[in-house]
Predict the 3D structure of the following.
Amino acid sequence: MAEVSTPTGTRCGYVALIGAPNAGKSTLLNRLVGRKLAIVSPKAQTTRSRLLGIAIEGKSQLVYVDTPGIFAPRRRLDRAMVAAAWSGAEDADETVLLVDAARGVGRDTQRILDRLAGRERKSILALNKIDLVRRDRLLGLAADLAKQGNFDPVFMISGLSGDGVDDLKRHLAAAVPPGPWLFPEDQLSDAPERLLAAEVTREQVFLQLHDELPYASTVETESWENRRDGSVRIDEVIYVERPSQRAIVLGDRGQRIKAIGARARAELEQMLDRRVHLFLFVKVRENWGEDPERFAALGLDYEV
Ligand SMILES: Nc1nc2c(ncn2[C@@H]2O[C@H](COP(=O)(O)OP(=O)(O)OP(=O)(O)O)[C@@H](O)[C@H]2O)c(=O)[nH]1
Ligand SMILES: [Mg+2]
């Protein structure tokens, strides 16, 4: 990596965002970085692998780690997602546990609380989605959680509106250890563009398809061609598990895949700031959730 020159008196650290599926981790990551990097959907288990979002706050470089939601895993893919989330937390300098204040402490959050209670280190607690909750309920929830874990400090935030997020940022900037910045000042993520581009399409799969389909699908960028006219041609494959799912992703006369492609293309043009020609293919791979190649494309370890 190129030498990174930084001012003196700098700090730098990794900050893991962990929590139950749907707690709002990816929304918060995007808010903290000030740009949309991570995909977001109303459905649980949207994020599948760790994603770094890097931001400068004063003299501190904060390397945020968005993680998959932590839940009771069943499939191999689930296990790999949950392992990625915990290793994100274990490698980090600071861990922020996000709790959806509107939902309260469900089974998934309880499991995380139990595991965190076994650690000596303190975590930061962020009660999220406060835009949806009355203040008295919020205080009750904070008191309940304080009893269950070693949390200091506690923030009440809305990743969606940004409420309280600046306080969290300032705290983190002072909390990470002194040291040189680990990434160039203008770097926003460690994720390759090919992965981010596949994620943009996967977000549309999560937004536009329902039931088991988002979970039965994965998206990979197959080729990327920068054209002389400044545009880019991106070919992506949506893998599903069964022919019947392929038919649904394509939709009646191809309407669904067209709609997915249109939204994804518009997002990609914004992200890449140039014209995009996006070609989507839908392939059936019966057991893609057991295929090391598909895991590698998602940035997940297969051996879990
Ligand atoms: N009202 C409100 N909604 C929020 C807030 N933060 C996130 N959401 C919504 O909650 C849903 C889940 O958000 P995500 O950011 O995808 O949650 P996540 O924790 O990354 O979810 P997984 O990746 O599935 O673990 C989306 O519909 C968001 O718009 C918030 O502060 N307020
Ligand atoms: Mg997420």
